[in-house]
Specification:
Blueprint: H1 2-22, E1 45-51, H2 58-78, E2 81-87, H3 95-107, E3 112-115, H4 120-132, E4 136-140, E5 158-161, H5 164-182, E6 187-193, H6 201-214, E7 218-225, H7 230-244, E8 248-253, H8 256-268, E9 276-280, H9 284-292, E10 297-300, H10 303-320, E11 329-331, E12 335-337, H11 345-351
Length: 358
């Protein structure tokens, strides 16, 4: 009888260990827990994935520099290590590949994912899946809402963005300033952007609303979408130039890829020195166009700061066991850069965050 009782106890013990293994071995006192009893983390190493919408885009590379610098700073200050990887499609237009890659990221069960999406509807269920799996999910610049609306905030940890309404309004004001400087009062304004997207459309809508208020004599074209392709953006701009001829007084581009194509078209055409050209975000082509006078102003987001804050928040959430921000959405305002201020040191950092790379 005693022998049977011993065997029975051993079997119960084995079953208990087996159940613990099936649950990942994360009992309340386990050193593998993400959070310790004081609300923070006992872990010294974290796996974080940056899922970018485009590995080829300079803008998302600039965001990535901020992400990596934040990671290095916190590794040093907190004595942790971060297993960091960058994944994503080559081009922003490859949204199906982005969603597939998101699913693969979730399957890796990282501690955190920092990302941006140009496919809101398809990303929402993936965001929900990641959050339900206990992954700290932070969005940067482009999230699963416009930012201002707080949409789907239960499906992510934090969102650092630049208000697209503000971008559009500031672009309109910069366009009007250029009109005043060149003595232009009326005419046709060509409208161009990359993709039709709930959030990015606010850059167009904000521009249209503000320019109608401050320059009511302008006629705006329909919005020409280019699928985030430079060649298509250039062809669209050439089409607008040939269609409206002397009536065309300028162009507005809602992102840097569009701006590249428009700048190429403007540089190759004979539109005259009174032509006004305003774009959003910066890259090498736009910076050169600003220097050459082909572009009058760029509305520049602080891509570096958005990336830095996004990663900093993700790691602090993991280390401290809670989100340090009081609001789920944090707006990082843009600035207007022109030929007059582009050589200032702080403007140079915004135009080319590679200067800040560690």
């Amino acid at each position: 009888m005693k022998m049977k009782k011993v065997v029975s106890m051993l079997l119960v013990g084995a079953m208990t260990l087996s159940l613990a293994a099936c649950s990942g071995g994360k009992s309340s006192g386990s050193s593998d827990d993400k959070s310790s009893s004081n609300g923070g983390s006992d872990k010294k190493s974290y796996h974080v994935i940056y899922l970018t919408p485009s590995t080829a885009s300079q803008f998302w590379t600039y965001v990535g520099i901020g992400i990596e610098n934040a990671m290095k700073d916190i590794e040093e200050s907190e004595g942790i290590t971060v297993d960091y990887e960058v994944v994503g499609p080559a081009e922003e237009s490859q949204t199906e590949d982005y969603v597939t890659t998101f699913e693969q990221c979730i399957g890796k069960q990282p501690d955190a994912i920092v990302t941006a999406t140009l496919a809101i509807d398809a990303t929402v269920p993936k965001a929900q899946e990641a959050t339900n799996a206990g992954i700290v999910l932070n969005f940067v610049n482009c999230g699963i809402g416009t930012g201002d609306d707080g949409a789907n905030e239960d499906y992510y940890n934090e969102f650092y963005y630049c208000s697209n309404d503000t971008i559009g309004e500031m672009a309109a004001e910069a366009f009007k300033d250029a009109m005043d400087a060149k003595g232009v009062t009326s005419g046709v304004l060509g409208m161009n952007t990359n993709v039709e997207n709930e959030a990015l459309n606010h850059r167009i809508d904000g521009f249209r609303k503000k320019i109608a208020e401050i320059a009511p004599d302008l006629e705006l074209t329909d919005t020409y979408y280019n699928g985030n392709d430079v060649e298509t953006a250039q062809k669209n701009a050439e089409n607008i130039i040939s269609t409206y001829g002397d009536k065309l007084i300028g162009m507005y581009s809602g992102n840097n890829i569009t701006g590249d194509g428009v700048c190429n078209a403007v540089a190759d055409s004979n539109v005259g020195d009174k032509f006004i050209n305003v774009a959003v975000d910066s890259d090498d082509i736009e910076i050169q166009a600003l220097k050459n006078g082909v572009l009058d102003a760029i509305i520049v987001q602080d891509a570096y700061a958005q990336g830095y804050k996004c990663m900093e928040n993700a790691l602090r959430t993991l280390i401290d066991g809670k989100n340090p921000e009081s609001k789920k959405q944090v707006n990082c305002p843009p600035v207007v850069i022109t030929k007059d201020n582009m050589d200032d040191s702080d403007m140079q950092d915004l135009l080319d965050p590679t200067r800040l790379q560690k």
